[in-house]
From TrEMBL:
Gene3D superfamilies: P-loop containing nucleotide triphosphate hydrolases. It comes from the Bacteria. InterPro entries: CblAdoTrfase_CobA, P-loop_NTPase. Keywords: Transferase. PANTHER family: CORRINOID ADENOSYLTRANSFERASE. This is Cob(I)yrinic acid a,c-diamide adenosyltransferase.
Length: 197
């Protein structure tokens, strides 16, 4: 675990030894003592706001690079679907990168789409899995694609998303991708990137 270490050096005035007095080491219980404060560095939250619903190559490259260095990476695409690619059948790009898509029969990212109860359940199953990974540090990097649609489609509240970010393990970095990330989430993030195309 990476930590910032702050040390405080405190000067104390010691009386000069008098040769006529026996050598003693008086301890004043009220005197300040040197202290060592260790503050863990919390993982970063990055937000990528983009007009197109694409998983950008540089984000995939970042995930692959981190996974290649031995850190577990979780990539969750809540509204993109793949053939038999739900929780029971994740894809692995390298040994440490787990890629999950929603288990549904159609693309769920279209604006005018009304989700069925089964599709909502499938999306929320991925969300629950991601929340556990974020809280327990199962992955050092968690990429949440189209996280904004979770809130926009009233599957979760903005408060819930913010709480997951605030209570994440200190070892977890998070990347949120979306066309319109809620302002409170953007304000909380350490880095916000707006893409023009």
């Amino acid at each position: 675990m990476v930590a910032q270490i702050k040390t405080a050096q405190i000067k104390t005035n010691h009386p000069k030894n008098n040769q006529n007095q026996p050598h003693t080491n008086p301890v004043d219980p009220n005197s300040p003592k040197p202290s060592l404060i260790v503050t863990p560095i919390k993982g970063h939250v990055q937000v990528f706001i983009a007009p197109h619903r694409n998983l950008y190559a540089d984000i995939i490259a970042q995930g692959l690079r981190i996974a290649g260095q031995g850190t577990n990476v979780l990539l969750v695409q809540f509204f993109q679907t793949g053939i038999n690619q739900g929780l029971s059948n994740p894809r692995r790009l390298v040994e440490n990168l787990e890629w999950l898509r929603c288990e549904a029969q159609r693309d769920l990212s279209k604006d005018d789409l009304v989700l069925t109860d089964i599709e909502k359940s499938s999306v929320l199953e991925l969300w629950d899995y991601a929340k556990v990974a974020i809280k327990s540090a199962q992955a050092g990097l968690v990429i949440l694609d189209e996280a904004d649609l979770l809130v926009a489609r009233s599957l979760i509240t903005e408060d819930e998303l913010l709480e997951v970010l605030e209570t994440r393990s200190s070892k977890v970095n998070i990347i949120l991708i979306g066309a319109s990330i809620p302002s409170r989430i953007s304000e909380y993030a350490d880095q916000v990137t707006h893409r023009r195309s």
